[in-house]
Amino acid sequence: MLIPHQQAIHLLHSVAHGALATHSAHYPGYPFATALPFVADPWQRPVILISGLAEHTRNLQGDPRASLLVGPPPGVDPQTGARMTLVGDTRPFDAEPGLVRRYLRYLPDAERYLELGDFRFYRMETRDIRLIAGFGRMGWTGPRDTGIDSHLTHDDEENLLTIFADTAATRLLGIDPWGIDLAVAGQRERREFPGHTPLPALEEAVANALALR
Description:
Layout: H1 5-14, E1 17-23, E2 31-37, E3 39-40, E4 46-51, H2 55-62, E5 65-70, E6 83-92, H3 97-106, H4 111-116, E7 119-134, E8 137-140, H5 154-164, E9 171-176, E10 179-184, E11 187-192, H6 199-210
Antiparallel strand pairs: 1-2, 1-5, 3-4, 4-7, 5-6, 6-7, 7-8, 9-10, 10-11
């Protein structure tokens, strides 16, 4: 059973932390799991900021193959709520300024880690996702398709954020063609659009989503 990518995208934006499983360099053959925050980039790929001294960083340097457990959202029963495991290759990269700004909107405390100089951005190139969306609703999403590759540029996203900065009752974190992310009472909140929304219609879609209470 294939699960629509859109369900996985919404879950990816609904939580702030996940469990990263890497191949242990210290105990070869054993998985090593670590809880850490992440942010989805405009192509819906998980991005993490990690120290060169961390065990999971050393593991990734030896073998980039990893998985990331995401969900369920806060306050949801882990046995009945939606959750998923992303499988892919996680490697370091040089983040462009727009992505750094996006990351810090979601995780502002990370700025102090960037100042230390020992932290680098890593990104998972997802091969597939195993999603459990509810009772009897589970399966792989299948390889990434062209739909999930649709994205906003950082400039387009920041222009939309500027338009709604003074009208939103809560802090806006990010916008993508499938929904918007807000910070509400210290928790991340995802507000979904009816479907994939092209750039010309995004301003209206954001306005409608922010009107929901």
